[in-house]
Amino acid sequence: MSSPSHGTTWNRLLVKIGQHSILIGLAVVVLMPILIIVATSFMTPQQSLTGDIIPDPLSVESYPQVFERIPFVRYILNTVFIAFTAATATVLSSIPAAYALSILRFRGRNALFLVVVAAMMLPAQVTIIPLYVMWANTGLIGSPLPLIIPFIFMDGFSIFLLRQFFISIPLSYIESARLDGASEVNIIIRIFLPMVKSALMAVFLFAFFFHWNDYFSPLLYLSSNTEWYTLSLALASFRSSYNVDWTMTMAATSLFMLPVIVIFALAQRTFVQGISLSGIKG
Amino acid sequence: MKKPRLSRLARTETKTALLLLVPCFIGLAVFFAYPLVANVYYSFTDYDLLSSASWVGLDNYKFMFTRDAQFWQAVTNTVTFVLVAVPLQVAYAVFIAVLVTSVKRMSVWYRTIFYLPALLPPVAATMGFAFVFNPGAGQVNRFLDWLSLPTPLWLHDPSTARWVFVVMVLWGAGNTIVVMIAGVLSVPVELTEAAELDGAGAIRKFIHITIPMLRPVIIFSTVTGLIASLQFFTQPYVANQIAGASNSFIVGYPEGATMFFATWIYEQAFSFFRVGYGSALATMLFIVALILTVIVLKIGNFTEGTSE
């Protein structure tokens, strides 16, 4: 007979094995659609219609096709341009706002912050119709400007996220700099920003991927102009307008996902920290 | 009554703050406050973008509640979707979070994998799901067939189409999972250790400690999940385009089963250019979302621990 402590160890091992089996099983299920997309992109068109998972024979033909049959490079450049410009604008406009809402004290600060959070929470659909009318009146529909200009002024989510980072910064650094007579702008640039680099990186990455992934805004403002199509827009109309096979669709889909997966793998800590802060304390 | 005097330092601080907030104020006014008000105004008009808006009073709302059959279909679809998807998503996130935090080894790997789908482009994800769920050669049906289970038509059958989206929402629940993991990690270790000393098993610990401690995070995730699901648009809209590849693009295909509220707003305002009516629909969404947002702000305690 085994001793009680021996039994507990044995039980613990069984529990661990059970936990890891469930997690590994679910992880495989979660990864499966991504793996199937990539695998299908390496199949022949005939094999892609069989429901197989492993490409046999391995074919890379669908990749050159993506670039030959549609202006894929242009779509990539359009998407990079919009995502990079909008994300840069977002970071630059969020810094002063989040700084004021977390470091500086003034009357009405909390009320203003709640308005920013409300702007972030409310569905886009409740403002999108007048916004569209506004952009239509300026004649900018079909150009990427309606996707970029608002972020020069503010983005609710980014201000919210930055503020959550900023409130954990001790005020003593700033106060001692103030006593030395440094101007507020100088304090922000010289002392504050170097301390919050990782927060700025998180906000940039979230904003970049938001625009990289976005479908709704490009659909509204760019679908009238194929010159400025983004990857989301191009891919959504891909199968119907070009009547292409699944292997080519999946090759384009893989290329669309690839930068997201690579950058996420490199910066996963930054993402997870940012998302954790967007929740509430338990 | 004497008003409290602001010190010189506090006054300069206020001035600096207002100066730094100028772009934010402009942004809030032009891209948030104005469109919110304009949307309510448009909802009382007949407007097609070409001729100027003409006042029609409550006509749009009367039409919505009495004559627009697709409004009710969109409401029913959205409500049933929200009521199924959101509780499932929260339960799934709690389950994963508890498991991921209870293992030491590989927990970063698991967290990374479960979060990843939340970051992928929704259009790419919809492509993948439309492919693996396609009735003829999709891997899902091939697997079900191998198990001798029924093989539904999924996105092509009104009774199963919405389930594909429910699965997709669960698959992409990474944000909720990460928030939930942070919640589980903030449960004081002393509590669970004390319970273990009292001889509580894993299930009793879960019911009597983890769940009550997670309550605020669960409520927060549920309400933010509700708001997110109310604007569910990209996945059904893109799936409709793929499903209609062989024939034409039918929004809500099949038989309006995937017509959600956000889709109906988009169709009215931007396909039919019934801007006034679209705005009336958006105003209804605004009322519901506003109530939910106020709840989030109340339970979120976002300004807790900061002085005014």
Number of DSSP helical runs of chain B? 14
Percent strand of chain A: under 5%
* General shape of chain A: flat
Query: How would a crystallographer describe the biggest sheet of chain B?
Result: 2 strands, antiparallel
Order of helices and strands of chain B: HHEEHHHHHHHHHHHH
Structural class of chain B: mainly alpha
Could you tell me how far the N terminus lies from the C terminus of chain B, measured between alpha carbons in angstroms? 21 Å
Helix content of chain B: over 70%
Poorly predicted residue ranges of chain A? none
Task: Please estimate the helix content of chain A.
Answer: over 70%
**Which structural category fits the helices and strands of chain A?**
mainly alpha
**Largest sheet features of chain A:** none
- For this structure, what is the CATH homologous superfamily of chain B? MetI-like
Task: Give an overview in words.
By secondary structure, chain A is an all-alpha fold. Chain A has 2 domains: about 5-40; about 65-280, MetI-like (MetI-like fold, Orthogonal Bundle), CATH 1.10.3720. Chain A is built from 16 helices and no strands. In chain A, helix 1 packs across helix 15 (about 245-265) and helix 5 packs across helix 8. With about 300 residues, chain B is mostly helical. Chain B has one domain (about 60-300): Orthogonal Bundle (MetI-like fold), CATH 1.10.3720.10. Chain B is built from 14 helices and 2 strands; from the N terminus they run H-H-E-E-H-H-H-H-H-H-H-H-H-H-H-H. Chain B has helices at about 10-20, 20-40, 60-65, 70-100, 105-120, 120-130, 140-145, 160-170, 175-185, 190-195, 200-230, 235-245, 260-270, 275-300; strands spanning about 45, 55. Chain B has a two-stranded antiparallel sheet with strand order 1-2. In chain B, helix 13 (about 260-270) packs antiparallel against helix 14. The longest helix of chain B has about 35 residues, at about 70-100. Chain B starts with 7 loop residues before the first helix and ends in an 8-residue tail after the last helix. The model of chain B has no long low-confidence stretch (mean pLDDT about 90). The chains are: A mainly alpha (about 280), B mainly alpha (about 300). Chains A and B meet through helix 1, helix 4, helix 5, helix 6 and helix 7 of A and helix 1, helix 2, helix 4, helix 5 and helix 6 of B.
